[in-house]
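User: Can you help me understand a structure? I only have the sequence.
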Amino acid sequence: MIYLQLFWSFFQVGLFSFGGGYAAMPLIQNQVVDIHGWLTMNEFADVITISQMTPGPIGINSATFVGTRIAGLAGAIVATLGCVFPSCIIVLLLAYVYYKYRGLTTIQGILNGLRPAVIAMIGSAGVSLVILAIWNGKGISSNMGNIDYISVAIFLLAIVILRRLKVNPVAVMTGGGIIGLCLYMIFL
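Assistant: Let's start by predicting it. Here is the structure, written out as tokens:
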């Protein structure tokens, strides 16, 4: 039964995660944290972090990780197949439709309408992760004692380095991990 749940959960993620990995994050969170309770929100944040650090799409990496955690190697295979299967079918169908009808204004209208929705999904996932990082998942609070200032400093430093200096994201993630290791060992 767990294999069917894993397949169906990640099939839905694969089916509805338009816009790529970041847009899939709220869908993955809904399935693995909210609906099934397979992971806590902190564990989910760790999965996203690990999925971002490893090669491949976030959705597939997350499916593999969650599947392994819930049902071992077979669970990883089932969850990953569930995540990939809808994309394969949809891409085949869309490629056919796009190449046949790409000049129609209806197709362009649909694509133009999907872009803002995808950006909203990415933004929603980002806001959830910022709340988790800065307030340790306790929700936004006006109590300044609830803020994790180390996370705020690393977040702001990473934003500046990424946007201003255009440093490779892998280097920023590695640096953030090293800085976090050092600072959290010293201050906590």
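Now, to help you interpret it: Residues 22 and 126 are 8 Å apart (CA to CA). The radius of gyration is 19 Å. Let me know which part you'd like to focus on.
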